Amino acid sequence: MIFSKTFCPYCNKVKELFRSLRVDYYALELDVTENGDSIQQVLAELTNQRTVPNVFVNGTHIGGCDATYQAYKDGALQKLLGDNQITEPYEYDLIIIGGGSGGLACSKEAASLGKKVMVLDYVVPTPLGTSWGLGGTCVNVGCIPKKLMHQAALLGQALQDSRKYGWQYEEQVKHNWETMVEAVQNYIGSLNWGYRVSLREKSVTYLNSYGEFVEPHKIKATNRKGQVTYHTAETFVLATGERPRYPGIPGDKEFCITSDDLFSLPYCPGKTLVVGASYVALECAGFLAGLGLDVTVMVRSILLRGFDQEMAEKVGAYMETHGVKFIRKFVPVQVEQLEQGMPGRLKVTAKSTEGSETLEEEYNTVLLAIGRDACTRNIGLQTIGVKINEKNGKVPVNDVEQTNVPYVYAIGDILEGKLELTPVAIQAGRLLAQRLYGGSSKKCDYINVPTTVFTPLEYGSCGYPEEKAIDEYGQQNLEVYHTLFWPLEWTVADRDNNTCYAKVICNKQDNNRVVGLHVLGPNAGEVTQGFAAAIKCGLTKELLDETIGIHPTCAEVFTTMDITKSSGQDITQKGC
Amino acid sequence: MEVNGLMPLPDSYDYDLIVIGGGSGGLAAAKEAAKYEKKVMVLDFVTPTPQGNSWGLGGTCVNVGCIPKKLMHQAALLGQALQDSRKFGWQFTEEVKHNWMTMTESVQNYIGSLNWGYRVALRDKKVTYENAYGEFVGPHTIKATNKKGVEKLYTAEKFIIATGERPRYLGIPGDKEYCISSDDLFSLPYCPGRTLVVGASYVALECAGFLAGLGLDVTVMVRSILLRGFDQDMANRIGEYMKEHGVNFIREFVPIKVERVEEGTPGILKVTAKSTTGNQIIEVEYDTVLLAIGRDPCTRKIGLDKVGVNINEKTGKIPVNDEEQTNVPYIYAVGDILQDKLELTPVAIQAGRLLVRRLYAGATTKCDYLNVPTTVFTPLEYGACGYSEETAVEKFGEENIEVYHSHFWPLEWTVPSRDNNKCYAKIICNIQDNERVIGFHVLGPNAGEVTQGFAAAIKCGLTKEQLDSTVGIHPIFWDFFKFFLLNCVHL
Known about the structure:
With 576 residues, chain A is of the alpha/beta class.
């Protein structure tokens, strides 16, 4: 019996506790009960407690929220409930659905805090039949292989540069796709294995099975052979991640590939059409072109939606000067196979987004990279009442990553309104486990998260894009400092002067605090990371100016920026 | 105003400011002063090396320092990239050679363009430039002697000494005759071949590193420790890595004689060296001997005694107050010649610029010599900011510092499967001050790029907690680094 008020957060907390214990309770909401005030008066006389919640179990007065949780912690509550509850203890303290970066980080942290943990991980094969091992998107079909293939492309550039630096070898240089894929997949294989071992070391139970809720606190796990087991847990974490979206046009699933297929493609893709302008699209297009392939990107509207558009256009411009073709404002409407093979030949029909113009072109491979969808619709969430955003499948959570069902949490790419980045998922997963089991109260901070796009010219950023900063603070309150720069290593190679670019956005109203930092250039990730820490510490333009540069690096440009965008001064580098 | 010397003070000066030395610090100061409509002259003159080598405007960094060494380091890294690239699927002939002349020409062409750029920039800013040797002859008065021996006198209200340093010679038989220094190496018109590098300064290790990276047989002769003044744990790891990558080390020996066995480009030299701990003597032949045992300030032959500027007699360094002013009020000094300051290009630039702003623009900001980041471009690059572990222990006491550290493996190195557990990072925190980060050290690729932002963060008072709450960028090695940092504590 809970005497409660509908608006009281502590009352809700108590109710959550009983729900999570699968105990039916009766709550009397005093604020919507006719004689609520007098009931509260009587309660105060009986229990010496005027506040709500006021909890009774089988006639015994427990007290308020804190007292109830205390009783739960020391077991007194369970003892009182014991008589009329069929106590069947949960098999696990925590079951995590999804063995990606976030899920694994959370499981290992929980296990090291002494909890009994299970991880369910299952990769539904792509339409072309590709699947992979433990570790999720990042390790298998995301950050890791893409950065390695980006590195392969950079090494192609290094081969060209090296001649200027005195290295001599025969003119003819070729790239062997299979060698690269094998090397990359071998490394990924070692990571998959490493994850398995580390789960075992931490005594986390791992099931290579598809998880699906069948009733509260209970999950059905189906393995590759269709064998089914059931498991219960006190708490669940959803960490199922996302998978590439298909446009729903004739031939898309039959003939096209996605990033889920590309990194293990057993043959060189040849002439490739990349559909989309997401960072996945541009990164893949970039390294494929860098390996010497004929690459075209088909863009519906803008490049890198959500990123600073000035930077995005510069990323695109660099790709274009380095041989990537762009078809703007077209979308594919049909893909047909002209010839089977590895690769075969495909005919793509595309339609203008502005008129009725259509065009047809042949490619060996069509790579779809138009977005990703959360894997939340086929895991039985409706059965236990977890709400998702019906439109995009994302899961709304509060600031402690809790869904509307108190014993179910969610982390990673499936969260609504949060960032889809591996380190964010890891941070969120670890902190969640520490809050659940380690007595911590530290929450994951989703603000000022740095990120890097590994396009041929890498793009690192932290804080606001210029457009968003203007929305937030008003153009008149911002000062933008910017400059072009020429990496020393590129001078001798004699290439790409006036393409690398750095920009810092400062809030004049707040002591010229840095609210956005953007850089296009080699090693942009390495450059950005430290500045992200500085922004976390309240970096201002003055402090940036006082920081002494490291010579000769690219990162030092940030310490000597004195041209404002509003001044309109020339920022091109002349000779030196 | 009677300052020093016996000559009468001129009534009016030819210039507001004369800068002696056209290196990074001097040029930055001169250009900044010109902004405020001051009449400025720069005197720059390169005394040729014993081997007869000299160079253009811009000072050490541009001509015989940071710029050419970073470019030659890059040449060596590209050699590694060539090897790595095969593992990433690139196919080309087995045989790969390096051509020293091609590299040197490219590097010198780039430097030439910088020299020219500086000349143009000075002209644009209406700074008078004289390619002449400056020497004080009386108060506010300087004598400028050009290449042809023509002398001119100039007066100025204020002076900035920015003459920099030059490599030290050993003072042993054969050193100036047969050995080269970093002042010669970067424009050497032939491949140095088998090379002995004498010294363990950062110049020594950087040069040894890239020479080995280009495929040469390189030996480093070390008197005592590596990279004096740097964190010794890091210094030794750098040495280990170089050793594993083919650089030979002869520890606790010093050369006592260099003789020529055969003339040539390169010739053959015989080096006799003596143990620092016993009487043992060794003799080894090399094609080239590169001396990198230290650098001396160019302050003893510029007439400082004539105007009464004090220098440290032992080191030749000039003591200044916190506004870069010498004991003679109208004479200032910036750059590598300052006593107890850092010998780094960006420091000289910052000091020069801020000095001029204080002199002519009413500014008050002083150059902050604390928490200056730096990077050593050895084969495994080393970036640092703040205290070394030794200095931190000394300053705060071992019980008051906590050191977090980790090895990491850059993703790009995994596929070529090389050098696991070589890259290393450590952070030194002051427990008494909210675990504020007081030392940051990293060994790994792109260490300079990595360190710069953290230097800004340290400037902003970075604590361990803030570092932990900074989300990493994946999959650069920072992420691995952070992950391990969170887990590993070393006391």
